[in-house]
């Protein structure tokens, strides 16, 4: 393998045309391994292999497809420790996050879609009167979920295990074949997933993985005429370009894009609960997650208390080596991304925000670290309150009453997940229904993993997770007959 990871194309581990590049550990700045750089021709070969495999795989009984996914889940669980070590090294996630939220969630997602669900359902009969369409008749109907075809899965760097599994598992369960194009920063874990599926009995061409730093790699995976659908997780800017390409050929799309989650904290909120929930932005993936409650809207009566307690919470978090079990905040993914996050903090200062805590690099010799940062006295028109920073940075904006809080929350280009903290449950649910977001957490940042996931506005197109992912990776066919 010339010391590097090979591509996985049509069931064969293939030497990359473009050679190899180093994958960097964000904590140590050392080389984790060598990732393959595919050529556009190799990407198109992967798409063609997926097209060739689609017919047989789509006709494979759902029970057999489910069995492959179930075996893959067991392979992942059996290799949890080495997979966790690799995920931590590639992403900079803490050991607990890498084990539980990356590798663990990936195994759970393969196990979830190893459960066969009905792919058709009856439509109530319709009585048709005699007319131009024929004699009077009772028409029966059936709605059938059919696979879309070849799905290109473009995955995010913040969670290469769970994000890829969340696309690949339901797509395969539905009878699609896939070409996975992982994020260039940490693709090695996705190749381990391909190995797990191969050993679980996935036929050649059903799963293909091609990586590379060149934009041409992703473009070829999206533009290939063999591809019927693109499932993308990443920035809204890149999602827009992919959507334009899909639109030219009417390719189906599932877009999981950016977020700027508004967290409305009312005067009657349980403040320690709100602080603990909002504080996950500082620690969980070091804020590199689209669902984070990064834009706090605090009612005046609780504003000062909330800012004080959030600052104290951030100050108690240990920043450092992700392999140390006492570490809460690891590095961000790369040096350029750290520079980007730091530029936003400086922009916030210039816009008039008060840096209550953080805003500087911790005194560590190496690694792409940023101290958890709290920006108070913000207004909703500041760029730091409107744009996705994707780092351990929280902004706080005050508001006076419920109507203003809702208006501020909805005054955003994004609409992925918002949050409401109030001990008045009736009000919390009333407010939640008025928020223009795909999901709302009421007094929690936890998620129900069967609930549909996706965004309003520029946060994306479509929904997945649970049974909704089976819908996302399928076309609906109607079959009608005279009763």
Automatic annotation (TrEMBL):
Transmembrane segments: none annotated. Keywords: Oxidoreductase. It comes from Streptomyces antibioticus. One of its GO terms (molecular function) is oxidoreductase activity, acting on the aldehyde or oxo group of donors, NAD or NADP as acceptor. This is Aldehyde dehydrogenase. The keyword Oxidoreductase applies. Pfam families: Aldedh. Belongs to the aldehyde dehydrogenase family. The keyword Oxidoreductase applies. Residues 13-479 form the Aldehyde dehydrogenase domain.
